[in-house]
Amino acid sequence: MEFRDFFKKSRREVNRENQSQGRQGEEQARREYEFSGHEVERTGKGHDLKVTKRDWLTGKKGKPKYVEVKTGNSKLSELQKKKKRQYGSRYIEKRYEPTPLGLIPKSNSMGHETKKKSSGYDSMFGLGGSSSSRKKTNSSGFDSMFGTGSSKKRRSSSSWGF
Fold first, then answer.
1. Judging by beta carbons within 10 Å of its beta carbon (0-12, 13-18, 19+), is residue 95 exposed, middle or buried?
2. Are 71 and 25 in contact, with CB atoms under 8 Å apart?
3. Contact criterion met (CB below 8 Å) for 39 and 54
4. Rounded to whole angstroms, what are the CA distances from 30 to 13, 39, 147?
5. What is the pLDDT of residues 20-71, one digit of tens each?
6. What domains lie within the chain, and their CATH numbers?
7. Which among 9, 31, 52, 42 has a CA at the least distance from the CA of 103?
8. What is the pTM for the complete model shown?
């Protein structure tokens, strides 16, 4: 037996920890959705939660969304992939990253993507809009705004121009 094998966890221990982490993630997602005014129902096959938003003014329920909670690097099962195709945008894959301080949501919080809306005026001058839609260039903002910059990629070997 090698020294490092002494610290190795059994497959059973790893599975138990992963299941516990998954339950924590589901509970955290449940709390987040309930806190934001959603009705949350535990499901089981193909997704973890059924989330419905009720309009507080009219009392009407919106279309339910189906949430699958994943922690760490876990992947969707075949059934979950099928449900994702079936429900389309109403199927939300909510991911949490384990840290020493607990689970933290990965980028796509609450399953909605927030898009910044531009007034049009700002984006005309390159001041608004998303950075992903803009082409990356080496020219300054002044150059790109007034068209004095070169569209060709510049070669710079050092900051002194040598």
1. buried
2. yes
3. yes
4. 26, 9, 51
5. 999 999 999 999 999 998 999 999 888 999 999 988 888 888 999 999 999 9
6. 4-111 (3.40.1350), 115-146 (no CATH)
7. 31
8. 0.60
